[in-house]
Amino acid sequence: MKIAVFSARPYDRQSLDAANVRDDARAAFEFLYFDAVLDAHTVALAQDCEAVCVFVNDRLDAAVLEALHAQGVRALLLRCAGFNNVDVAAAQRLGLFVARVPAYSPEAVAEHTLALVMTLNRQTHRAYNRVRDGNFMLDGLLGRTLHGKTVGIVGTGQIGLATARIFHGMGCTVLGHDPCPSTAFEAIGASVALEVLLARSDIVSLHCPLTPQTHHLIDTAALAAMKPGAMLVNTSRGGLVDTHAVINALKSRHLGHLAIDVYEQESGLFFQDRSGEIIDDEVFQRLMTFPNVLVTGHQGFFTAEALQEIAQITLRNLGHFAAGTPCPNAVPPPAG
Ligand code: NAI
Fold first, then answer.
1. Which residue segments constitute the domains of the chain, with CATH numbers given?
2. 56 Cα: distance to centroid of ligand 1 (angstroms)
3. Structure pTM?
4. CB 286: neighbour CB atoms within 10 A?
5. DSSP letter at 38?
6. What are the tens digits of pLDDT across the range 174-216?
7. Would the CB of 309 count as within 6 Å of ligand 1?
């Protein structure tokens, strides 16, 4: 069986090839790797393939799904947890098999969240450059002790819980907001309404999925409800945050810090080397001008352990498709 792998970086090839071995050491499936993002312009690359394997910024809207189906594609394998980029209703209508990787080292994203908070709070990114330049002044590097501060976790699922455990371990008070509160979270923190979380937290960290209900969850009103000088962290999906509203909150000095690993318009930027080009996205470029903003390019998941898990689970999902057996990672999740 041939599978077209889109948005394939060298590390994807390496991890998928390593997982794609049968007991007799031969490759189980034939992967065709493409650097290109899957969209209406690149869909023809999947010609002759029975499945496509995609990542967070591949576009699987109804038109792309119909084109894939017309070419003979019958399965969509997501190398990620979120499936906001897939028109699930269209996929169901076409009878496509859709499977994702619901969990792969939630600690990887939680630890990256911590890295962002610590970097921005203690300005280690600026200190690194300063010291290398022979400047040992401390002015401008003043941080705050996190012990005793309040951290609000929006979405206390796997990643939110792992993040809450880290901050709890650092001596922070942890608040959580989730329509399905978990007892595991409530063992270390208090479940509260979103307004309470926003009003009380020194750091607000987003860990809920992007859905029509959570789109621009953090808008002008939510930002106004946050504590003056608080930090907003988003390692979940860019669309959770209204970036224009965030820029206004930064300009008014109400929002103290912003750390993001995801950005609503990231698909034209992230996972690409644009260093020799002029970047036309003026909203993104405005963000880059703030000294209290830290951006990473969707690398929360990017650990060796997580890549290995993603590849192994993707191969397992593919095995279910090939064998016609029920897949526990089907999208939408099986009822019950
Ligand atoms: P999960 O499904 O275990 O947890 C998500 C939680 O959000 C659930 O408990 C759910 O009830 C809750 N939720 C749903 N709607 C909500 C709302 N309106 N307000 C508050 N909470 C709400 O998912 P997991 O594994 O923790 O992943 C969370 C998100 O992290 C994913 O949806 C994905 O977008 C993002 N992610 C980012 C990565 C990165 O590299 N930066 C890597 C992996 C995931």
1. 2-104+303-323 (3.40.50.720), 106-295 (3.40.50.720)
2. 14
3. 0.93
4. 15
5. P
6. 999 999 999 999 999 999 999 999 999 999 999 999 999 999 9
7. no
